[in-house]
Write a structure and sequence with these properties.
Elements (H helix, E strand, L loop, with lengths): L17 H30 L3 H23 L3 H23 L5 H42 L14 H88 L4 H31 L8 E4 H18 L3 E6 L6 E5 L1 H17 L5 E11 L3 E10 L21 H7 L5 H11 L5 E5 L3 E16 L19 H8 L4 E4 L3 H12 L6 E3 L2 H10 L4 E5 L7 H9 L4 H4 L3 E5 L6 H7 L4 E4 L4 H14 L2
Parallel strand pairs: 2-4, 8-9, 8-10, 10-11, 11-12
Antiparallel strand pairs: 1-3, 3-7, 4-5, 5-7, 6-7
Bound molecules: adenosine-5'-diphosphate.
């Protein structure tokens, strides 16, 4: 690099802020001005034969030139300012205390220069420091001079008026220059800030509109999905219901096989619709986690009951291990969401395992009296997952490979739902898996514990769960045949389905085509139970139930009501209870499940 290249452009860069650039410029041009001024002073004192002053002016000139060179070499304006202020302070004090031994207008100017320069260049703290460093000794000097007790062994040099004029002139120019230069920079800075502020505001407005648009479109999308799924669920309900009915009619073996396939496919389609609907709901942030009381052991039994049958059908050994510490505890949490998570994991475990075992465990990891941490784990001896796919399988609509889709079906939403549900609660999923050996999915949840405890469960919680008791049609036929059931349902296909289904148990239900009609019929007739569809014209199921609960005759106002709902996903329970209904069955319901619930309510409520 050329030693004599003193250009300012090489030290100004785009990265420096407006103020820093102004500081560098100020030093640069300030040095040039100072060199001119000092040159003139040097000449003036030299011509007057003032040796010490000449020497001092010369030394300062050299120092300024050196700092100028330093600045044009590297723009370390902070260091240079410090060096300059130290030099200036020493010079100032030397002139007052030694060389001139007096205070004149130049001294005052020098102090003002130092004050302005230090504040502008180095900020408030250093500004205060250098200001006091210059002011205090001068004040002390003034007091001592006033008392006539300042004396040193050096004869002061007195410069003539011309030197003073040059110094005063040069100092004024410097003061004005520093001030005007930095003032301009401040104004420019403020303007730039205002401009960025305005830009920011326009950007913010743009962002807001974009966000609103996105929200709107996602809302439209989720409403669309919701409506579509609902529309799909209704005919599916009929398909599944009809296959159930046909299967109950002692079909020929070949028909029975076809019907099973029909039922299986319809159920599959329904699971997909449910998954899509639910994932959509989770994604749109509409999930609220409940905090209700439940017993974990009982819940796990209920979840695993059906799954166990599936596992056994495949010849798999199903083990359900529940920590004895958990069995009698009542905890607070969201059983529906927990069910959904475990159900998905267990379904996968069964789906992807052809031999060996499925092992579901709930371990009490920590019991802190009023909260417990439970470790859940679902382990299988199935096909396993390749290491590189361990993360992607949690993405929505992602399966391990095309072969998975072909061989096992599915949407690739199950794990995405589980992961999102855990994420929403700030929890993590752990997976370990080995191809052809098996997989284990596990997560921990902390639950608040109620002070209540459950009575020892009726069904023993055994290490390996056995089949749960299933009601058979014959069993119900004896007890339920004279039941008086009122069905509020507007869809004729569903009505036919229900009638046929109930006829298996020799029950002839009364039908109301909407909620208002149901309330009316109930007023004049006697019934044991009401099956209430939720979406109906004229009056929906919620309003009708509320009307029923308001009836004066307690036999009517307390009648058991079961909601029949097609959109029964996971938040319906609250709404159903709030409206005063006792229970709900999701359409398409399994005949046994419906009869179970009816029987249950008749014995407990009725
Ligand atoms: P789906 O089950 O509908 O395919 P999931 O999101 O539940 O969707 O699972 C995504 C993928 O993760 C599955 O397609 C499968 O490749 C893999 N997977 C999930 N659970 C298991 C398991 N227990 N064993 C082997 N692979 C699994």
């Amino acid at each position: 690099m050329n030693f004599f290249n003193f250009s300012i452009n090489k030290i100004l860069t785009r990265e420096q802020s407006i103020l820093d650039q102004a500081r560098i410029r100020l030093l640069y041009y300030g040095f040039l001005l100072a060199i001119v001024g000092l040159g003139a002073l040097f000449l003036s004192v030299y011509l007057q034969n003032l040796h010490v002053l000449t020497l001092t002016a010369g030394a300062i000139l050299v120092a300024i030139a050196a700092l100028f060179k330093y600045l044009t070499y590297k723009p370390h304006w902070r260091t240079i300012s410090h060096l300059l202020l130290i030099t200036g302070t020493l010079l100032n004090l030397a002139i007052v205390f030694v060389i001139v031994q007096d205070i004149n207008i130049v001294t005052i100017q020098a102090i003002i220069l130092i004050i302005i320069f230090s504040f502008y260049m180095l900020g408030q703290n250093w500004g205060m420091f250098f200001s006091l460093l210059n002011l205090l000794p001068i004040l002390i000097f003034m007091v001592m001079q006033y008392d006539h007790n300042y004396f040193i062994d050096f004869k002061p040099e007195k410069a003539d008026q011309s030197t003073t004029i040059i110094a005063v002139f040069a100092n004024f120019i410097l003061i004005i220059f520093i001030h005007s230069h930095l003032y301009a920079a401040f104004i420019k800075n403020i303007k730039q800030l205002r401009d960025t502020g305005e830009e920011q505001t326009t950007l913010n407005i743009k962002f807001e509109t974009a966000i609103k648009k996105a929200e709107k479109s996602s809302q439209v999308q989720s409403e669309f999905l919701s409506t579509m799924s609902h529309e799909i669920r209704t005919p599916l309900n009929a398909v599944i219901g009809m296959s159930n009915l046909l299967l109950m009619n002692n079909p020929r073996p070949d028909q029975s096989e076809n019907l099973e396939i029909l039922k299986f496919s319809a159920n599959n389609l329904l699971a997909i619709v449910n998954d899509v609907l639910d994932f959509n709901k989770i994604e749109s942030g509409k999930v609220v986690f409940e905090k209700i009381k439940f017993n974990l052991a009982e819940l796990l039994h209920n979840i695993c009951g059906g799954q166990m049958i599936k596992a056994e059908e495949k010849g798999l050994l199903f083990k359900l291990d529940i920590d004895s510490a958990l069995r009698r505890k009542i905890i607070f949490g969201d059983p529906t969401r927990l069910t959904q998570m475990i159900f998905n994991l267990v379904s996968n475990a069964i789906k992807f395992t052809s031999e060996g075992n499925i092992w579901v465990r709930a371990t009490c990891l920590e019991d802190r009296h009023n909260t417990i941490t439970v470790g859940f784990s679902v382990k299988d001896s199935g096909i396993g997952i390749r290491k590189e796919n361990l993360e992607t399988i949690f993405e929505p609509f992602t399966q391990e490979s095309i072969t998975t889709t072909r061989q096992y079906g599915g949407t690739g939403l199950g794990l995405a739902i589980v992961k999102r549900l855990l994420d929403l609660q700030g929890l993590q999923m752990h997976v370990s898996s080995k191809v052809n050996v098996g997989s284990e999915f596990s997560f921990n949840i902390e639950f608040p514990v109620s002070t209540e405890i459950v009575a020892p469960p009726k069904e023993l919680v055994t290490e390996t769960c056995q089949h749960q008791l299933q009601h058979t049609g014959a069993e119900l036929e004896l007890t339920e045949s004279n039941l008086r059931i009122l069905i509020a349902e507007d869809n004729p296909v569903n009505v036919m389905l229900m009638k046929k289904l109930l006829s298996k148990w020799h029950i002839v239900p009364t039908i109301a085509e909407n909620g208002a009609r149901a309330v009316e019929i109930l007023q004049y007739g006697n019934f044991d139970i009401v099956l209430m569809d939720l979406q109906m014209p004229v009056m929906n199921g919620f309003d009708a139930s509320m009307e029923i609960r308001k009836m004066t005759d307690p036999a009517k106002s307390r009648i058991p009501i079961i909601a029949l709902t097609a959109s029964a996903l996971f938040d319906i329970r609250d709404q159903v209870t709030t409206a005063g209904m006792n229970d709900y069955v999701a359409k398409p319901f399994k005949p046994d499940e419906l009869m179970d619930k009816i029987q249950n309510l008749i014995t407990t409520v009725g």
